[in-house]
Amino acid sequence: MASAIILLPLYIANLSTADYGAMSIYLVFSALVQILVMYSFDSSLYIHFHEYKNDQRTLSSFVSSAFVLMLMIGVGVSIISFIIGDIILVRFFAEHSLTFYPYGVVALGTGILQSLLKVYTNLLQSRQKAEAFFWTNLFNFLFTLTFTVVGIKLFPQTLIGPLGGRMIAAIFSGTWVLGSIFSEFGFHFDYPLLRSSFGFNLYAFIYQVQQWLINSFDRVIMAFFGVSLAGVGVYDFALKCVLGIELIMNGLNNSSYPKVISAFMAQEKKHSTPEINRYYHGNTAVVMLMVCLTIFFFPLLLETFLASKTSYLQAIPFIPYVASLYLFRMIRLYFAVPYSVLKYTKPLPAIYMVVSAVKIGMIVLLLGRYQTYGVIIASFCSVMVEIVLLRLFVQDRFTFRYNSFKMIIAPMLLFLMIVMLEPWFDHTFGWLIHAIYLLSCGGLLWWTYRNEIRVLMFRKVKG
Q: Quick one: average pLDDT of 130-137?
């Protein structure tokens, strides 16, 4: 996420919105390849490491075999892609001049190599090798940044720099991963041992594909149904502008998640408590503030620094709406926790099949009339359906007790204010209405948490 944010100025300076849209399509394909090649070993290795950690021979055989299988899947995906990749791009995206050679090939290779890195870093987490985990991700980040910058400087105004730079970084990282794995665990391929994991992998794999459909496939649908690559690029750029919210939201959630899980595991009958809810109340308040800050500052920054790049300024009207969707994603995290606590993954494929169908179906229905706004409406409807289904399917196994105003009503009030006021104000005076959002959010949070604020102030004075 950080590299995507840091590289934005370079992309803007060197790529048209049409090229940026084309790059987003290729990166969506690369993400799909990564999911296919991993076949959810990023999740299953975490489990099997703890299962086999006292049996070094079995552990070595399983880990090595998993990476060999991923390489084999990568070869299979490559063969299929070389046969049908260009046919699909030419036939279904004929109006956009998207071709498999060379950029599709580059995206394919990047996806295969990044899958190896993803599984390897998850294995390092499982083994609690924090230092190796840190350095591996840091060097991959620096490689990606460096080679992308060099590629853009050598080949400006083309996709060679952004896509080629990522692939070169992936080659370095993938080579390092394979060398580390085979030097430590040896070279094995024990298919019967791997097969014992396929039952778990299949459900996790279906879930990952569904998440890809929900989070990334919208750009493919937009291009397929006639939205120009420039239009796709503007939409993707608007999503990148609010990516900082996701970075902070995930950081907050990951930092509190171990404590939340520990608190749940100490319970005999699983239910939410005020102590557990406090983490989500605080995270929700921070996300509400981040949404308003993003809506206020980003249009001003874009207008200040992108005056000559008017095509990218077309993303400004979409920023308030795509940013406000994060208010519901925080709620979604709260209702998704019981599935991890209870290890109750059986209904997830069905839930996300419905969510995927709702989003894709609504995009198809709304895209012709509302264009990009139709995609945003579909995203809102799908996340609402997701929250309802997550809550519904676990209610017999888990008891929710929470402050409805703090968890749901306060974010909903802020969302309604944004979507009701935004269309009525001319963009010229956008900064004023965006400032009102920020002040209103501050006032709403002060009123919501007035008792907690008084306690904190009393403690400070007393101290």
A: 87
- Residue 293, Cβ density class (10 Å: 0-12 exposed, 13-18 middle, ≥19 buried): middle
Tell me the pLDDT tens digit for each residue of 185-197.
889 888 888 888 8
pTM for this one? 0.86
pLDDT at position 1 is 65
pLDDT tier, 311 (very low <50, low <70, confident <90, very high otherwise)? confident
CA distance 458 to 463: 8
Exposed/middle/buried for residue 169 (C-beta within 10 Å: 0-12, 13-18, 19+): buried
Can you tell me which residue has the tokens 């503030």?
289
What is the SS3 string spanning the chain? CHHHHHCHHHHHHHCCHHHHHHHHHHHHHHHHHHHHHHCCHHHHHHHHHHHHCCCHHHHHHHHHHHHHHHHHHHHHHHHHHHHHHHHHHHHHCHHHCCCHHHHHHHHHHHHHHHHHHHHHHHHHHHCCCHHHHHHHHHHHHHHHHHHHHHHHHHCCCCCHHHHHHHHHHHHHHHHHHHHHHHHHHCCCCCHHHHHCCHHHHHHHHHHHHHHHHHHCHHHHHHHHCCCCHHHHHHHHHHHHHCHHHHHHHHHHHHHHHHHHHHHHHCCCCCECCHHHHHHHHHHHHHHHHHHHHHHHHHHHHHHHHCCCCHHHHCCHHHHHHHHHCHHHHHHHHHHHHHHHHCCCCCCHHHHHHHHHHHHHHHHHHHHHHHCHHHHHHHHHHHHHHHHHHHHHHCCCCCECCCCHHHHHHHHHHHHHHHHHHHHHCCHHHHHHHHHHHHHHHHHHHHHHCHHHHHHHHHHHHHC
Structure-token pair, residue 95: 């109006």
Q: Are 95 and 152 in contact (CB under 8 A)?
A: no
Tokens of 383: 């996340």
Say how far apart CA 7 and CA 17 lie, in whole Å: 15
| Range in 49-63, 207-221, 275-289, 307-321 the model is least confident about | 49-63
Question: Which residues 6+ apart lie within 8 Å of 227 measured at CB?
Answer: 367, 371, 372
Nearest Cα neighbor of 140 from 160, 124, 157, 127 is 124
User: How far, in Å, CA of 83 to CA of 141, rounded?
Assistant: 32
CA distance 189 to 194: 9
Q: Is there a contact between 107 and 33 (Cβ–Cβ < 8 Å)? A: yes
